[in-house]
Amino acid sequence: MDFSSKLIERAVNEFAQLPGVGKKTALRFVLHMLKKEASEVENFSEAILRLKNEICFCKNCFNISDKELCDICSNPTRDAKIICVVQDIRDVMAIENTGLFRGHYHILGGIISPMDGIGPANLTVEPLVKKIEATGVQEIIMALPATMEGETTNFYIYKKIAPFNIAVSTIARGIAIGDELEYADEVTLGRSIQFRIPYSNQILK
Length: 205
Fold this sequence. Notes:
Oligomer: single chain
Structural class: alpha/beta
Distance between the termini: 58 Å
Number of domains: 2
Number of strands: 7
Shape: elongated
CATH topology of the largest domain: Dna Topoisomerase Vi A Subunit, Chain: A, domain 2
CATH class of the largest domain: Alpha Beta
Low-confidence stretches: none
């Protein structure tokens, strides 16, 4: 793709680094920004810079937050004794959209995937164990993808928290095998949370 301006070329190359954005789409973004008022472009730039410089992670659940504790963990109406373990922030958003879960979350930051070089040490498993040990958690809900990697992660966590003798459940399989939570419709996902089943029932005897 030939560009008449090095500035446009650089901007296109930056936009093209975004997931799912090719050079043609990036060029549309750049040309759109050129039509904007300078103040609008400045607001856009400021929002991105503040996102990078000021965003933090909740010290309790590792959710993305504007402050030390996210709105969910700091909400006194949420039940801290029930923790839903998810892969990332997108899963929290998907479950929250159902309006049917009133507990807390714990974001792992990924799932165990040796082929991708991701092991337990790369996830927030140990903080989860320490949280269970230090607080009165009564139930852990495994809400990880219905994939081989998700099931491997489920089993690893199950073995790590087994000594604490707390309830461990997994979402009902209204979610198809191989599906990601973020793509499930709200009704299916909500029912999967509501009708969760003991994780031990899922382990092959």
